[in-house]
Structures are given as structure tokens and as C-alpha cells.
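Lab notebook, bench 4. Still working through the backlog of constructs that have no structural model yet. Next entry is a single chain of 120 residues. Request: give me the C-alpha cells for it.
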Amino acid sequence: MKNPSSVIGLCLILAGSFSIGYNMDRYELAVVEPIHNEKEAQTVSELAELSVMVAYCESKIRNVGNLASSAYGIFQFIDSTWDNRCEGDKDNVEDNIRCGVKLLNLGEYHHWDSSINCWR
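Model written out:
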């Protein structure tokens, strides 16, 4: 795997409808699929910002493991959460991001209670 700081345009899949690219070198977000109205734009923007904040607080946006638990990846999923709520490979960056964004979009913030003071 490439060094995360050199990964450009990593896609965050939002609710299966929108993609947002994250430029990790510049810490910028950019919508890479069309937005159809102002309400959608606001929702996507807020979800993208929240996703990046949670990922930063959990892992500094790195695909790493936690020595004290089974948590792994950019969103630091533990095995039981991954097995019950996510698809794909927890160690795969795109699968990890896809699940993190999906759960945040569903309002399942409790998965990141341990870092809530950082991202709220």
C-alpha cells in the first residue's frame, strides 16, 4: 500500500449516491460526482466534513491498527462492528472508508464515542 500522505483523490462513497475525493496532501475535499440541488450539496458537504473529522481523530487518516484492541483502519473499526455492519475487508482503505461514511450517514455516531470530544 502507498503511504497515506501520498494518496490523492481517495473516494468516500456517501450513501451510495455521491463520491467525495479527499486530497490528503492538501487536506481538501472536492465533490467528484454531480450534486443536483442545494439541499443535497449541504448534506454531502456536512457528511464529508464529519467523515474527515472522525477519521482524523480516530487514526490521523492512516490505515493503522490499535495495539490495545481489534480496531483497525482509517475509521478504527473493531471486529464486532465490522462483522455486523460493514462489507469487504476491514484492512482495505476504501472498504474502511466506505463503511465509516455509511454509518455516519445513518447517524450511528456511537461507534466513535471514544473520540467524540475530538470531532464534535
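Notes after review: The longest helix spans residues 38-59. Strands lie at 10-14, 18-23, 28-31. Flag for follow-up if needed.
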